[in-house]
Amino acid sequence: MTGARGKGAVKNTTTSLKPADDRKVGKRKATVDGSTVRKAKKERKANKDPNKPKRPPSAFFVFLAEFRTTFKKENPDVKAVSAVGRAAGEKWKSMSEEDKAPYEAKAQKRKGDYEKQMKDYHKKQGTSANGVADDEDAEEANDEENEATGEDDDVDDDDED
Q: Contact 59/102 with Cβ under 8 angstroms?
């Protein structure tokens, strides 16, 4: 009798797998239509301004630009971008803070140049994308910075009474 139960259990497990397969198929049917998602992404990308300055590279990317030229001279047969990136990442991790300092200084300089370019860009725009004048936009940016740092200029001093 125990043998019959064993065979019966095997049959039950195979039949119990079918509902699980049906559940997987059901999940596939319930997915969102991919065309609507793609359209939304394309619309977001279309809103970028080609005249807007590019963000400055980080210290690592400044290092990577220089490292890429030396790596290609030393290893002309290596064509994979991933190999260059991997080698650069390993070298960057092994570098001391003093070795990284010149790249960080260059990155800071480029960041300062970027900030100047962004100020000029906003002046040329006249108004921001939402139609708010630059003066109001600057005040909003100040308010956001104050909230982030915990400062609050708009607090009334009536609490002292």
A: no
CA distances for 102 relative to 56, 61, 99, 109, angstroms: 16, 13, 7, 11
Q: CB within 8 A of 81, min separation 6: which ones?
A: none
Helix axes 81-94, 59-74, angle to 10 degrees: 120
In eight-state DSSP terms, residue 152 is -
- Return d(Cα 145, Cα 152) in angstroms, integer: 10
Judge if pTM exceeds 0.90.
Answer: no
- Residue 133 pLDDT: 46
The 10s digit of each residue's pLDDT in 104-143 is 999 999 999 999 999 999 998 885 554 444 444 555 555 5
pLDDT, tens digit (0-9, with 9 covering 90-100), for 65-112: 999 999 999 999 998 999 999 999 999 999 999 999 999 999 999 999
Sequence-separated (6 or more) residues with CB below 8 Å from residue 54: 114
Assess contact for 92 and 47: CB atoms under 8 A. no
